[in-house]
């Protein structure tokens, strides 16, 4: 099998047992809740894998214990930096052997999009929990395969929706659900930046499965859903391409899309690889509004409403994400905004509909 380097060059205990696999039940029997730590191996040691690893240094419930990479030099660097033992290091050919490693609980798959499905399914078959970076897969059909495989294996499938745990985001969602903005009727999501190196995997259709929509556009799709608290019924979409050399066939440069919701609310969104300073959410209701800018970036999120600014301590998103995901897997915690495979699948259904709407020029109903 070609390596990534080539691709990109479970009384309280019985209640808990209802929601956790057998191995987690044993963990709950043997350890106090506060002692349980999710032991994670990161698959894919690129820039975002490094960001997650560095954030995990400050985690209380999650610990980096292993790596999977096709680049031996990266493995050696990570072993030294994070004190990872040899027995917890794998490559893409032999990582199925993690099934025999009791010191790894979960694998975070941080690879190009096209590898999410096959590698996540292999991790599940090895009996380890799967955390997969977004988008979960290339399309809804692949997403369904992943959900089914993880259910069959009795493991969790979680998706790297770090914003679902970010304090200001959660406060806006809490206020919306409490009715503080009245009837929310409109959402705007602007997601974009100017992409650089034209040879990177994000601009390779075989690896990315698209262009900006499969990278940055997913934030506006997902944001519209959790900000409005509804699932869309239909989408319309339009694509613009100014550089067909850089953005080849099936690699979208810019897509504007609209979504309609059961309440009558609408969303108007933009996904682009050609404009900087586009990281904004705006939610409007009959009694007020909420605005976030930046809304999904790595740095401190800024948010305010018609009543004034929302203040909350900035904590590195991936640190919070991994601690919260540990609580989901180890304790059966239910997050306010889901991060499971079904959540990831819903976004993929919408992505499929958007791409179809671009082709047909028609309103596409969402199944």
Largest sheet: 9 strands, mixed
Specify the number of helices.
Answer: 12
Structural class: alpha/beta
Bin the helical content.
25-40%
Q: What is the number of beta strands?
A: 15
- Beta-strand percent range: 15-25%
Q: Overview of this structure, please?
A:
The chain has helices spanning 4-8, 13-17, 22-30, 47-56, 72-82, 116-125, 140-153, 167-177, 205-208, 217-228, 317-331, 341-360; strands spanning 38-43, 62-68, 89-90, 106-109, 129-132, 157-159, 184-192, 234-240, 254-260, 266-272, 278-285, 289-292, 303-305, 308-309, 364-365. The protein is an alpha/beta fold. The protein has a nine-stranded mixed beta sheet with strand order 14-13-12-11-7-10-9-8-15. Helix 7 links the parallel strand 5 (129-132) and strand 6. Helix 4 packs across helix 11 (317-331), helix 6 runs parallel beside helix 7 (140-153) and helix 7 runs antiparallel to helix 12. The chain is globular and about 55 Å long.
Primary descriptors:
367 residues, alpha/beta, nine-stranded mixed sheet, six-stranded parallel sheet, 34% helix, disordered N terminus
